[in-house]
Structure formats: structure tokens, C-alpha cells
Amino acid sequence: MTQAVFMMDQHILSDVYSDEAIQQITSMIEVYDTVITKDNINDHLPLLQDVSIIFSGWGAPVFSAEVLDYLPQLTAIFYAAGSVKQIMSRDLLKGITVSTANTINARPVAEFTLSQILFSLKNGFRLQQSLRETKQFSNGIMLDIKGIYNQTIGIIGFSTIGKMVCEHLQNFDVDLIVYDPYLAPEMLSAYSATPVDLDTLFQTADVISLHAPLLPSTVKMIKREHFKQMKEHATFINTARGAIIDEAALIDVMGKRPDLTSLLDVTDPEPPETTSALYTLPNVLLTPHIAGSVGQEKFRLGQAMVDEFMRYQANEPLLYRLDIDTFDRQA
């Protein structure tokens, strides 16, 4: 009797679930012999009546009401990736345990963000460009560099990633300010951070890092007036989603304010059109969506779901269970 099945892009599976992880799974539960994908799901659904566990990840088929009707024994889904909103709805999750690797995938994003914050405060991006163009080297002690000490970091969105960035920054002598409309101010006390409104954050921060979820209410939440208010020589970092900002406004302001810097790991569309000024503006630096789990980091996602399944089997508390109550506010 088949009790578990992999449902995801077959070509990605081996990048997320290591051989060791798959061996752990097959030693605990019988697994269907075919990976279910978007392309073959209709051929296999009638054979999955006994499946109680789904292991999934990027490229998974949509878990629609029709699909779930073929899975009457389903009790749990272990999703080795971030948000599940693209493949399942809140109402369909009732009665099913869903755990995701969203928190695990947040770790490399927070680490990447920290690196960008620190490097920008050392003026590393501008100095690298200048050295390449002028081949004139000056000792950093003599240069006009902000440095990290006593600088103000603005975090937009006290999400899982935003919170992790704040945790990392506890090791540095910086001032933290945070904007999040859903945040209770007392939640920031452990981080020595100050809640502020969005305008104040843009006016005050030396580095601004965006970590809000992409929701209908946050589309183009960051507008022209926000970018225009940025401090002299401030840096804006986006590792969230490109659609949260007014990209045309950012391009316009960056063109008029060469003192500012934007570090964009995400854009809208992604990638940008080949004619986009994002490629040519000297104070805009693009990276191709590398903040999240890449390379060996992806195996951490699959292993987290294997470990979560072991807790599920042992009736132990789950670490990464999806919170249905906050589903609508999640990315």
C-alpha cells in the first residue's frame, strides 16, 4: 500500500532532496514509484487513493479541490520550499497538516541581506566601480566612508526574514528602525529596535532593506515620494519581490539622485526587459535572485522536511507548521 508520494518538478527534486534524505523517507514509509508533476498528474491521480503523505517543493502541481478529491487519505504535506499560496488555498487546507521550509529558506536571504548592508556601509559597491574605472587606489582611512558604527538600518516588514536580519544586526553597533503595520511595538524590544512610519524610515535610514510580503495591499507600496525622501548617500535593498516597489519611480529617482544606491535581487518583471534602465544606471546593482537557497543550501530545505516528517510520525510538535490564521498575510 503506497502511503507517500513526491509531487514537484522532477528535475528539481534531486537538488532539494538529497540521496540521504530520500533514503531516510523510504526507510520510514512506502513511496509511490513515480514523481508526480504538472505534466503527468492526471494520469496518476486515480492510483493515489491510499496516499496519506505528500513530499513536495518547487514546481509542484496545484493542490486544487479536484486533486484533493483523489486523495481521501491525505493527512499531511511537507513542502520543501517557501510560500504555498501559488499551489493551495486557505480553505482547502482545513484538516490537512502543512509544513513548509519557508523559515529555512529565509536563512540565506537574511545572510545575503546582512552582507549587502555591511558592504554598502563600507561604500564597497561604489569604490569597486571607481577602482575599475580610475585605477586609483587610496587607503580607506582617508576616504569619505560612513562605516558601520552608529548607522541607522531601516527594515520594512518584520517578517521571518526581517526578524532574522534584525537578529544578525544585534552583533553590530547600529540603530534599528522598523516599519510593519501588523507589528505590536513591544515585539521590537528584544531587538533594541524602534517602530516608525514608512516616511520616517525613508527619511532616517542609511540603509533600507525591504522584507514585506507581496500581497494585493503591498503592490507598489514603495512609491516615488519614498525614494525621493532617502538620505544623502543612502542605500535601498530589495530581496523581497519586485512588484512591491514602483520600479519606474525608482529608476527615475536613481537617475536624478546619483548619490543613492539600489541593490536589487528581485525585479518586476523578472528578469527585467532588456531595454530596462536597471541594467545601465551606475547606481543600481542587479543580482539574479540569488538571495534565497541556491546550490548546496537547497538540500537544507529537503532535510528540514524529512526531519519535520519524523516529528510528525513521532507525534512531536512540528517546527514549521503553516499557520492558517496568518495565511492571508503571508507571502
TrEMBL record:
This is Glycerate dehydrogenase. InterPro entries: D-2-hydroxyacid_DH (IPR050857), D-isomer_DH_NAD-bd (IPR006140), NAD(P)-bd_dom_sf (IPR036291). PANTHER family: D-ISOMER SPECIFIC 2-HYDROXYACID DEHYDROGENASE FAMILY PROTEIN (AFU_ORTHOLOGUE AFUA_6G10090). Pfam families: 2-Hacid_dh_C. Keywords: NAD, Oxidoreductase. The keyword Oxidoreductase applies. Residues 116-291 form the D-isomer specific 2-hydroxyacid dehydrogenase NAD-binding domain.
